[in-house]
Amino acid sequence: MDCKSCNKEDCPSKNQRPDERLEDFLERQELAKRMCKIKHKILVMSGKGGVGKSTVAVNMAVALSREGYNVGLLDVDIHGPSIPTMLNLKDVKMMQSDAGVLPVKVGPHLKVISIAFFLEHPEQAVIWRGPMKMGVIKQFLKDVDWGDLDYLIIDSPPGTGDEPLSVVQLIEDIDGGVMVTTPQEVAASDVRRSVTFCEKINLPVLGVVENMSGFRCPDCGKVTDIFSSGGGRKLAEDMKVPFLGKVPIDPAVVQAGDEGTPFVNAYGGTDTAREFNEIIQPIIDLETEKRT
Ligand code: ADP
What we know:
Blueprint: H1 22-36, E1 38-46, H2 53-66, E2 71-75, H3 83-86, E3 95-97, E4 100-102, E5 104-105, E6 110-114, H4 130-142, E7 149-155, H5 162-170, E8 176-181, H6 183-187, H7 190-200, E9 205-216, E10 223-224, H8 231-238, E11 243-249, H9 251-259, H10 263-266, H11 271-279, H12 281-291
Parallel strand pairs: 1-7, 1-8, 2-6, 2-7, 8-9, 9-11
Antiparallel strand pairs: 3-4, 5-6, 9-10
Helix pairs in contact: 4-5
């Protein structure tokens, strides 16, 4: 639909802002037109690296697509894109249509774009300053032909840097952020800082996921709390944000990630897959609430 014929009067992209150049306004409208076709946009964040943020983002996206929702997964982790490895999309060639860059299809309901698809060499180091990062993220949102989606899941680099900030500035109707943490990280201040960051930039925190919460024995399936667990729930209570659930350390998660098969696909019937599926329930509720 064209912005001119749209009757959504409260849309911030309807009118040019007083201090906005015409070309910036038209670009903002182009981006809004793409985003208009996506019902929910969710940013997956963490206080620091290695806590399983990308693993959670991939499995959330795949779990939602398995429920029949049309899902986009956007990897804006410019310095360490890991989604192509996790989905075995290492040698993809990007295609373009008149409507824009075509995202890579993974199954009938999932479309993926990663910065890694645009690098000449996978190991290429990317040295970009803030405005360049903002520029490339803008292209991913504006120039990719995402089509009609129920969810766009965005995997951002850890911390409170340019990438999550750009995403929030560019997507005017973003639903919110999902914060991934580990029991150890809860003790550190990084994750609290990330929640405060969300408050500052007016990004609702949809909830906290406690990943690597205990260890699930591959033989007996029993979970042992090798570090203290439950910190994620406590943190969520303290910071007055929802708790989405916890996932233990499961050796099969590492194996699935390394093999490029999403865990919830390869190990669908397991307890750990059930835990991943519980996390997406409040995200599914966003859509159900919208419909009712
Ligand atoms: P981040 O995006 O936070 O840097 P990743 O998602 O890349 O973290 O995960 C880091 C490593 O931890 C990967 O090898 C991944 O397979 C592993 N991992 C993540 N979550 C789990 C889990 N619940 N159980 C076991 N290994 C996990």
